[in-house]
Amino acid sequence: MKAGVGMQKFPITKEGYEKLKKDLEYLKTVSVPENIRDIEEARGHGDLSENAEYAAAKEKQSFIHGKIAEIENNLALSNVIDLEDLSSEKVVFGAKVEVEDADTNDTIEYQLVGPFESDISKNRISVTSPIGKALIGKIIGDQISVKTPGGIREFIIVDISI
């Protein structure tokens, strides 16, 4: 499918785009050749119908090629956003936003990124997530309400940085 009219582009940081390219290169230059060697080695073990190593290597081959296709698609749909030109007056893509939970007074800092680089374990949330959508365009002092599986949560924006 060509990236043309009607295809939605997704924002991504330069860092996230480079990581996707590096992951793709690794799959093509390391994972694929290793997998080919594994398949050849397993073939040498005789009867393929009862060869678990061969079946596992073929399954891994399918996974690797699927991952390559997924990353190539994500790269094609990516729109790299230069964070250097952004202002920190309001919440925008790429911003780091410190919020305070209105109920617990706990603070947490999120970075708003695109869906291809979100990672909640690193507090990198997608601009398409419920919290991400609620934060976009807001300024310091604004309060947002986010519907979560545990109910409505209220956050106050404490700080914004790029």
How is the topology of this model organized?
Elements: E1 10-13, H1 14-43, H2 52-76, E2 78-81, E3 96-101, E4 107-113, E5 124-126, H3 130-135, E6 143-148, E7 151-161
Parallel strand pairs: 1-2, 4-5
Antiparallel strand pairs: 3-4, 3-7, 6-7
Helix pairs in contact: 1-2
- Approximately how much beta-strand content do the residues carry? 25-35%
Q: Number of helical segments?
A: 3
Corresponding CATH superfamily of the largest domain: Transcription elongation factor, GreA/GreB, C-terminal domain
Domains counted in the coordinates: how many?
2
Work out the helicity level.
25-40%
User: What strand line-up does the widest sheet have?
Assistant: 5-4-3-7-6
CATH architectural group of the largest domain: Roll
Class by alpha and beta content: alpha/beta
So what's the overall shape?
A: elongated
CATH level-1 class of the largest domain: Alpha Beta
What do you see in this structure?
The protein has 162 residues and is an alpha/beta fold. It folds into two domains: 10-81, Transcription elongation factor, GreA/GreB, N-terminal domain (Helix Hairpins, Orthogonal Bundle); 83-161, Chitinase A, domain 3 (Roll), CATH 3.10.50.30. The protein has three helices and seven strands. The protein has a five-stranded mixed β-sheet. The chain has a two-stranded parallel sheet with strand order 1-2. Helix 1 (14-43) runs antiparallel to helix 2 (52-76). The mean pLDDT is 90.
